[in-house]
Each structure stands twice: as C-alpha cells, then as structure tokens.
Amino acid sequence: MAVRTATTQWTGGLQDGSGSVNLDSSGAGSFDVSFPKRVADEADGTTSPEELIAAAHAACYSMALSGGIANAGGTPQSSTVKADVTVRPDRENGGLLISQIVLTVRAKVDGLTAEQFADVAEETKKACPVSKALAAVPEIVLDAALES
C-alpha cells in the first residue's frame, strides 16, 4: 500500500494569512498558498487546493486512460488531459464548494474507433481513483476526442 504525504504550514488568519504546501513524498517542491489568491481570478504565483486537485485529477486520469485503452485492445500513443476545477461560494452550507470539474482529453490512439475511445474515456472518468475520491463534486464533465 502506497502512502503519499504533503504538509502545509500556515501563518495568520484566513484573509491575511499565507502558507506553503510541501510535496513531502516526492520532494518535488514547495508551493505558496493564500486564501485571497485562492478565490481571485489571478493566482499570481501561488497555488490552491483546487489547482492541486486539478493536477492530481489530470495525472490520474491520463494514467488510467492509458491502461483503459490497452485493456480495450488499443495502443495509446499520447494524450493531453486538462482538468478545470471550479470553486464557488457554497450558498447552502457556507464556505466554498467545488461545483464542477471539466476534463478535456485529446489523445492519439491506434486500434480503437472514436466510439470505442469515447466508451473507454467515459469508463476511465468513473474508474480513476481520483475521480472516485471526488465523487461528491456535483458535476464532472468529460470532453474526450481522438486526434489525428
């Protein structure tokens, strides 16, 4: 069983505070976080939980898609997966809510028709471990297409 760890150090209050998240397991880096920048249009050099979720979802989905294509009898050549995570105020419960994730997938695949690829892409959306972890998100939209 693999365990991956990240740690956030935070100083100050919600609006005036700031912190950094460190990717402990991989040592891949440390990234600044700030609540005001989390909900602003421009991140200005800081990341957010939603951006980290987008990165995790895009990475997980692309790995799972590669396996799904092979299991369906195709040969994966390449793919690009973009995850757009929308955060908005939670009007019912207060705080914030991840209201939507849009996965945009473009892939080059040998041995599958566009319809077979669409089926694999949809199955991957359900089967990817990060998708499963995000099951409470009201809407996960998939836009998947083969590239020539």
Q: Can you walk through the features of this model?
A:
The chain has 148 residues and is an alpha+beta fold. It is built from four helices and six strands. It has a three-stranded antiparallel β-sheet with strand order 1-2-3. A three-stranded mixed β-sheet has the order 4-5-6, with helices on one face. A hairpin with a 6-residue loop joins β4 and β5. The termini are far apart. It comes from Mumia zhuanghuii. This is OsmC family peroxiredoxin.
Set out the fold topology.
Blueprint lengths: L5 E6 L6 E6 L5 E5 L1 H4 L10 H23 L3 E15 L6 E15 L3 H14 L1 H5 L6 E7 L2
Helix pairs in contact: 2-3
GO molecular function: peroxidase activity
GO biological process, one term: response to oxidative stress
Pfam family, one: OsmC
Briefly characterize the structure.
The protein is of the alpha+beta class. Helix content is 31%, strand content 36%. It has 2 domains: 6-38, no CATH class; 49-146, K homology (KH) domain (GMP Synthetase, Chain A, domain 3, 2-Layer Sandwich), CATH 3.30.300.20.
Query: What general form does the structure show?
Result: elongated
Supply the helix-strand structural class: alpha+beta
Q: What is the distance, rounded to the nearest whole angstrom, between the alpha carbons of the first and last residues?
A: 38 Å
Helix fraction by DSSP (H/I, runs of at least 4): 25-40%
Structure annotation, total helices: 4
How many structural domains in the coordinates? 2
| Largest sheet data | 3 strands, antiparallel
Q: What is the correct CATH architecture of the largest domain?
A: 2-Layer Sandwich
